[in-house]
Structure formats: structure tokens, C-alpha cells
Write a structure and sequence with these properties.
With 427 residues, the chain is of the alpha/beta class. It has a single domain (3-59, 73-175, 188-278, 359-425), classed as TIM Barrel (Alpha-Beta Barrel). Helix content is 39%, strand content 16%. The strands form four sheets. Strands 1-2-3-4-9-10-11-14 form an eight-stranded parallel β-barrel, surrounded by four helices. β10, α8 (248-262) and β11 (268-273) form a beta-alpha-beta unit. α4 packs across α6 (151-171) and α13 (365-379) packs across α14 (393-408). The radius of gyration is 22 Å and the shape is globular. The N and C termini lie close together (11 Å).
């Protein structure tokens, strides 16, 4: 069974840059709670497994050494805190999961552990965490540092961070600690609530977890690193991984490497996908051309420059881009591969069909459904993170067209499984 997440962000422009200028797009309502409540209700009607909310700290200021292009095009700025919209969406749904991206580099594990336990309580066990370490020097400067740590050093810090928060979630409170006994006046048994002690190279802790056990205790753990160090981290900690996509053979190799490294522990793989659908192939092609007229090349370059940690402005259109990066190393590899092995500015721009490097899957509903099924079979992927194009029509089409097409082929559930987010995913 294919699993589906909606991939979105609490901003105007997420992945497909420029789509907010389309006359039918409503992404400029990102700051209104009803925008998110309507989306949550729609996704649950379509039996989506989750809403995967991206996030980033800092601003995209690598292109030309300035944030101007990002600000001008609304490239993930302005940006709300995704955690604050989750409780509202949880209140109007029963089953939809919420995967929230949170950067561990700049927040004490004690505070973050409380926040996630709180969300797990308020969602009745439907919260997940996409673990990221950050990749923007602008974020580091915002937090009082000169620059971010080196790529592999960030993962070393993350390993220790995971040890601390996991111990707080799992070890501080016993399942039976809370008694809420009105007759004796004992709310919780002190003998079943213990301090967590940690003294490591990055973190020191001597504290009780402030929150009693939540339905899941530990949020569903997502991770998106695809470098060698990222794979090692995911194999140790993650339950679900998010991959950018690409040729099926390359994606299969990534998924195989992750599962071999994680064995015998099960790990699920979600691949990024951008459907552009019509009732017929011709209608879909017309829609793609309509969307393309609103795509922003400058916005896409601003995003890509930050993701790679490379300023493209000094390079000519066909000059090989050879600068070293301390950002998302797997993105450098993926973009170079998509450009024929040599990364150039022209090669990048050629990939920006809808204002991003993610090539849309264009066709009739039946063609898109067959493509997703075939891709999952060829790669071993468990599901897809569907990214926003023109909203909310892209979400309505996924719910009203794509989901029934997958169900007709026996490739999608017809009802939610019971239980928490984790139990639903792994049932």
C-alpha cells in the first residue's frame, strides 16, 4: 500500500517557486489558521497519512551574497513556526499525522523534549519529528555564531542530542507513575519519576522530564540526510526517511543502503513527488504550461544556492560549478547527476520547470497513479511526499482524483488503521 504525505511549509513559496502568483493560488493565506484547518480536513478526507511540514532557520542569502532574491520572490520567507499550527489542525481531525521539521542545533534538548511531548499529548499521539541539523550560515549568525558547524560535526552533535531527548522521553517517567488518586491526594508516584543525568561533550543535563508519558512517548522520527554520514545517522535513529527522488536505480540504491544499515530495524522511505494532473493527458500538459508561466527562475536559484551552499553568480552559464559546500551535500550530488555529471548554471535552470529542481509528474490521473505505483515497485519506496504547486487545487485533485485511482488499483488504503501515528504507519 502506497502511503501519502502532503509536503508543505508555513510560507508563501515552498518548493515550486513563483506558484503563489497564479490567480487560483491561495498560499498567501499561509498566516491564517483557517487556511491550515481547511487543509487538514481535506487531507484527512483523502486518508493521507500525514502533513509533512518543512521548516528552516535563517534566510536564503547565498545567491549574490544577499537575501534580496529570496525576499523578492517569497522563497520560504516570511515563515511561521510550524509547530504552532499543529494543535489547531489536530482539533479538527482524528487520524491525520503531523511531521514537523525542527532544527536541533540551536535549542536545548530539555526544552525541545517538552515541546514534542506536549504536541504528542495535544494530537493524541499523532506527532512526528523531521530531525534536521540545519545548513544555513544565516541561521548560525542569527543565533550569535559566525558560521554553522562542519557537516559531519553537526551529525556528531545530533547523535548526542538524540541520546538526551530519547532518555527524557523513555526513561524519566514510568507508565504507571501517574495515579491521579483523589482519595489519597497522590497525583504521581515520586518513586516512578526519576532524574535523567547526562554529561557529554556537547550537553549536560540533570533533570526530570516535565511531561508525563504521552501516547507515543517518542514522536515518529523522520530524517532526510542522504550523505554517507546522513545515512549512518538515519540508520541509527530514523523510522522514516525522506528522499528527493531521481532515477529509479539511484533511489533504489539509496533505500537499499539505508535499510541494510538499519537492519534488523524497519525503516520506511518516502520520496518527493510533484504531480500535475488532468482528466486527460492533454489537459495535464495544458495545466503544466499554465503553471510554468508563473515559475520563478530567480527564486529557484536563490533556493538552490542556499541548499548547495554555493553562490552561482560568479559562474558563467556553462562554466562548471566546482565550489566546495558545507550545506546539504546530497543535494550537490543529486543536482550534478541531473545535469549530466557536471553542475552548471544552465543545467540547473533547465531543471527548474516549475521553479524548483523537482521535475513534475505530468499526465492524466491514471497515468500519474501508474507512475507512482511503478516507481514504488522499482525502488522499494513506501510512499511519497507530494509537494504543493497551485494550492488548494493541487490538494483537492490529490484527494478527489489520485487517491481513488490508487484505490481502484488496490494500491491505497480505504480506511485509517486504529492507533497512534506510528501504529497507523507501520500497521
Amino acid at each position: 500500500m502506497i502511503r501519502l504525505n502532503a509536503f508543505d511549509m508555513a510560507c508563501v513559496g515552498h518548493i515550486q517557486h513563483g506558484m503563489w502568483t497564479h490567480p487560483r493560488d491561495q498560499s498567501t493565506h499561509y498566516h491564517r489558521l483557517d487556511h491550515w484547518l481547511d487543509l487538514a480536513r481535506l487531507l484527512e478526507r483523502g486518508l493521507f497519512d500525514g502533513l509533512f511540514l518543512a521548516d528552516v532557520l535563517g534566510i536564503y542569502d547565498v545567491l549574490g551574497g544577499s537575501a534580496d532574491a529570496a525576499i523578492r520572490n517569497g522563497v520560504q520567507v516570511p515563515l511561521l513556526d510550524p509547530m504552532l499550527v499543529v494543535p489547531g489542525m489536530a482539533a479538527v481531525t482524528t487520524h491525520l499525522g503531523f511531521g514537523v521539521t525542527a532544527n536541533l542545533s540551536y535549542e536545548a534538548p530539555y526544552l525541545f523534549a517538552r515541546r514534542m511531548s506536549t504536541l504528542d499529548h495535544l494530537t493524541n499521539g499523532r506527532i512526528g519529528w523531521n530531525i534536521v541539523t540545519g545548513y544555513l550560515d544565516s541561521a548560525a549568525r542569527a543565533m550569535g555564531l559566525d558560521r554553522q558547524q562542519q557537516h559531519d560535526d553537526r551529525y556528531d552533535l545530533a547523535d548526542e542530542y538524540m541520546e538526551v531527548v530519547t532518555r527524557l522521553w523513555r526513561e524519566s517517567w514510568d507508565d504507571t507513575a501517574v495515579r491521579a488518586d483523589r482519595a489519597t491526594g497522590i497525583y504521581a508516584d515520586p518513586a516512578q519519576v526519576r532524574r535523567i543525568h547526562h554529561n557529554g561533550p556537547q550537553y549536560r543535563l540533570d533533570a526530570h522530564h516535565l511531561v508525563a508519558p504521552s501516547p507515543q512517548r517518542v514522536p515518529v522520527l523522520y530524517q532526510a540526510g542522504a550523505s554517507a554520514r546522513g545515512i549512518r545517522f538515519a540508520a541509527q535513529h530514523a523510522e522514516c526517511v525522506f528522499l528527493n527522488g531521481g532515477p529509479p536505480d539511484a533511489v533504489r540504491a539509496q533505500i537499499t543502503a539505508l535499510r541494510e544499515a538499519a537492519a534488523p530495524r524497519r525503516i520506511m522511505a518516502f520520496v518527493g513527488a510533484t504531480p500535475v494532473m488532468g482528466r486527460t493527458e492533454a489537459e495535464a500538459r495544458d495545466k503544466l504550461e499554465d503553471y510554468r508561466r508563473h515559475a520563478s527562475v530567480e527564486g529557484a536559484l536563490a533556493h538552490a544556492a542556499a541548499s548547495l551552499g554555493i553562490d552561482f553568480e560568479p559562474f558563467g552559464m556553462d562554466e562548471p560549478i566546482t565550489a566546495q559546500s558545507n550545506a546539504i551535500q546530497s543535494n550537490v550530488t543529486a543536482m550534478a547527476r541531473a545535469s549530466g555529471g557536471v553542475l552548471t548554471k544552465r543545467g540547473l535552470i533547465d531543471q527548474f520547470i516549475l521553479g524548483s529542481r523537482q521535475k513534475p509528474i505530468t499526465g492524466s490521473v491514471d497515468q500519474v497513479a501508474e507512475t507512482l505505483i511503478s516507481f514504488a515497485a522499482a525502488t522499494g519506496a513506501d510512499g511519497f511526499n507530494l509537494s504543493r504547486t497551485v494550492a488548494p487545487e493541487c490538494w483537492r485533485e490529490a484527494v478527489e482524483w489520485l487517491v481513488p485511482a490508487l484505490q481502484e488499483r488496490g494500491a491505497y488504503k480505504t480506511a485509517y488503521a486504529p492507533g497512534t501515528y506510528r501504529e497507523k504507519l507501520f500497521s
